[in-house]
Amino acid sequence: MEDRRNNLCIACSSSNPNGFHVEFKLQDNVCRAYFTAGENHQGRNGLMHGGLISTLLDEAMGQLLWSQNKIAVTAEMKISFSLPVSIGEKLLIEARETDSSRRLCKLSAAITLPDEKQAVTAEGKFLPAKLQ
Fold first, then answer.
1. Which of 21, 99, 108, 125 has a C-alpha 20 to 30 A away from that of 78?
2. Among the residues of 4-126, which ranges form H helices?
3. Domain that holds residue 92
4. pLDDT per position as a tens digit, 52-110
């Protein structure tokens, strides 16, 4: 996907020293990436912080829209945590578009554990925006 070295996005920029440096790829209308959380991504007891998990899901959905040349901002996001996400696990992050109109894009995203169980799912609504 787009080379974002010149921005400081917390999720995808390779230039942000504190960022996740996630590289998303688009295949068959699905945005995918892998991420392994380190110790600096934990909340407590070796588990990944829920806010950071939410950031990854939001970014995956945003990246999918970006890959379609749609500039949009998150209007609403609903997240369901089903299983704990441990640091050190290689996570699969995926996002799909579920419905879109000129005024609203609806997407879903999920984080899957190495044992292929879905740990976290999200549904997002995005509003078209203009870059300044």
1. 21
2. 50-67
3. 25-128
4. 999 999 999 999 999 998 989 999 999 999 999 999 999 999 999 999 888 999 999 99
- State the CATH number of the domain containing residue 110: 3.10.129.10
Cβ proximity of 1 and 66 under 8 Å: yes
| Placement of tokens 């400081």 in the chain | 8
> 38: which 2 tokens?
């380190």
Is 5 a member of any domain? no
Examine residue 92 and state whether it is found in any structural domain, yes or no: yes
Instruction: Answer yes or no: pTM beyond 0.85.
Output: yes
Specify the residue for token string 């879905």.
118
For the purposes of burial, counting CB atoms within 10 Å of the CB of 20, is it exposed (0-12), middle (13-18) or buried (19 or more)?
buried
Residue with tokens 């995918």: 32
Domain count along the chain: 1
Q: Distance between CA 68 and CA 72 in Å, rounded?
A: 11
27 confidence band (pLDDT: 50, 70, 90): very high
Under a CB-based contact definition with an 8 Å cutoff, are residues 15 and 7 in contact?
A: yes
Residue 9 maps to a domain = no
